Structure formats: C-alpha cells, structure tokens
Amino acid sequence: MKFFIDTADTAEIRSLAASGLLDGVTTNPSLVAKTGKPFLDVLADICEQVPGPVSAEVAATDFDGMLAEARVLRGVAKNVAVKVPLIRACRRLADDGAMVNVTLCFSPAQAILAAKAGAAFVSPFVGRLDDVAEYGMSLIADIVQIFRNYPFKTEVLVASVRSPLHVAEAAKLGAHVCTMPPAVLRSLFNHPLTDKGLAAFLADWAKTGQRIV
What we know:
Helices cover 52% and strands 17% of the residues. By secondary structure, the protein is an alpha/beta fold.
C-alpha cells in the first residue's frame, strides 16, 4: 500500500519524506489556506520535496473553469495530480495526459464512472461516511471488488482517514493508497506494548553493566 499524507504543511512533509515512507501528498483549498501562503508557491514547494503524486484541487465549479485552473496546476510540476469532482472534466484532462484524482467519492457508481473517465485515482471519503452513520470501509470493499473485475488502471485512494484502524482495514481490503493526516501516519509506529517491552529490555541490559561498543 502507498502512503500519502493529507496536508499542506511543508515542514511536516519534509520530515516524513526523509523517513522514506512517504509516497505522495494530497492537499485541498482548506489545507493550503491554513498555511497563509500563496497557493502556487506552496504547491511548488511540496512538489520539490515529494517525487510521487501531489494532488492539488481546482477551486472552480464549472467545466471550463476547471480546465483553465488545471492547466495552471499542471504547469507547476510534472507530479501534480489534478483533483476534480466532475467526471466530465476528468475525461477531458485524462485524454490530455493529465494525472487526475476524482475526489469526494461516496458511492461505487461514482467510482466506476471515475475509472471509466480515465482517473489515475478515485478518492472515497471513509471518515465522512462514518460521521453520518454509514460504514465507510464497506464502500472501499465494494470499489476494490468492482475494480478487480475489470482492467481499470484507476487506484483506490482511501481519504478522510481518521485512525490507524482505517489504514489497516483499507490495507486488508486491498486499497492501493491511503492518504492520512501526518499525526495518523506517525501513530502507526506506536503501540503501548512495544514501548513497555523496550523499556523492560533496556532496564535488563542496564543491570548487566555491559556495553556493545
């Protein structure tokens, strides 16, 4: 499974990229607004730090506006994946050679349309479904099963991830990518029994009075 982080915080991206565990980044207008910096400057900085896909979302809501903004975004760097909510725009951009991430997917039917439109990624939002008393992971299971039935090249990018449990469940289902807040990625390292075991080993070693070097 590929790990993306969902942020526009360049310091966090730089830190996690150095770990070698980061495969890409997803952003949106809300995340970029939190930086207080010009959008295109932030995007260019992120693209320099991460060789993998960097999803940047259009702000326009009409077809022509999306295409115009997509041209600008694609001009920032070769690894920009244009995030769009409109299937028609996806088809046009994909035909033009763009890497497209169809965002805000909440049904298997939407995922099928995104794949048929040539999307590189489709982003089902599991946490937001959980928020309205629907089991978000059932959507991931449905999409993964459907995609296995056909020669789609579209990758299932699990979004709105809230916890390590979401990541593990998505991996068991065979999703291609999980994008998560930096805190969730960092929390994958942690387990209280690991900390307890390490403390015990170190205490026992200290009792020996030995050194390895």
